[in-house]
Write a structure and sequence with these properties.
Elements (H helix, E strand, L loop, with lengths): L2 H18 L3 H4 L5 H15 L6 E5 L15 E6 L2 H9 L3 E4 L12 E7 L8 H9 L2 E12 L4 H12 L10 H10 L2 E3 L3 E4 L4 E3 L4 H8 L4 E8 L5
Parallel strand pairs: 1-2, 1-4, 2-3, 4-5
Antiparallel strand pairs: 5-9, 6-9, 7-8, 7-9
The structure holds S-adenosylmethionine.
Length: 231
């Protein structure tokens, strides 16, 4: 699919789930509630307290990741599905309907930008990441999670889905995002692996273990800090 058709497909998909899926996890595309909880809880743990910070949740869905945080956290939720954005409002986010790759905000206007499990809807996730990175203020953070392109399980599931003629989400190469962010003036922490099957969250320091777990981890989490002297 071309990127335009892909985008239109996923927007229809999420508009539909926002309107019709009663279960929280299914509404935002997770196959099981436990998978959504594992990802959301890991993001919150890695971010730590957010009091007083201005945060953008890009691809926020219905706001499950940061909805319900302390009232003095200002969270703007960006989503291209108007129905999702409306649901995010109910969880306390300030909803904005728009595209990940051309978010309508000033450069360097957020302390933290997060984008959880949304990059797989894009044919060119690197372009969206570059534009999200520009929204982070010097000293601020960018947190990304996505479908790990090294995962053996993901390749099997994706291949079976394609053989059945289904539209499959894109797998994301966390290493190339790390390089892109380093070039954009970020200090990038070592990648976290998040895995649904088998279930684990790990950031192993020995290189060999990191590479090995990368074949099993279904998802990744990257956190990057914009250098204070970045242009
Ligand atoms: C899998 S859901 C994740 C929702 C939320 N981040 C979470 O983890 O619970 C992906 C969300 O990203 C949104 N999304 C996908 N592609 C987008 C794009 N190009 N621009 C804006 N939002 C997008 C979808 O509408 C959907 O709400």
């Amino acid at each position: 699919m071309t990127s335009e058709r892909e985008r239109a497909y996923w927007r229809r998909y999420y508009d539909h789930t926002a309107a019709h899926e009663p279960a929280d996890h299914a509404r935002v595309g997770y196959t099981r509630a436990a998978f959504a909880q594992l990802t959301h809880a890991t993001i919150r743990r890695v971010l730590g307290p957010l009091d007083g910070r201005r945060v953008l949740d890009a691809g926020c869905g219905d706001g499950q990741v940061l909805g319900g945080r302390a009232a003095d956290v200002h969270v703007v939720g960006l989503d291209f599905s108007a129905r999702m954005a409306a649901r995010a409002r109910a969880r306390g986010l300030v909803p904005v309907c728009g595209e990940l790759g051309s978010a309508p905000f000033r450069r360097a206007s957020f302390d933290d930008v997060i984008c959880a499990e949304a990059l797989q809807c894009l044919a060119r996730p690197d372009e969206a990441v570059a534009s999200l990175a520009a929204l982070v203020r010097p000293g601020g953070r960018l947190l990304l999670t996505g479908l790990n392109h090294r995962s053996l399980l993901r390749h099997v599931v994706r291949t079976v889905g394609k053989l059945r003629g289904e539209v499959e989400p894109e797998l994301i190469d966390a290493s190339s995002l790390t390089r892109l962010l380093a070039q954009a003036g970020f200090e990038v922490e070592p990648v976290w692996w998040i895995s649904y099957v088998p279930e684990f969250v790990a950031r192993p320091r020995p290189r060999a273990l990191h590479v090995l777990l990368g074949f099993f981890a279904t998802n990744f989490l990257l956190i990057a800090h914009r250098r204070r002297d970045a242009a």
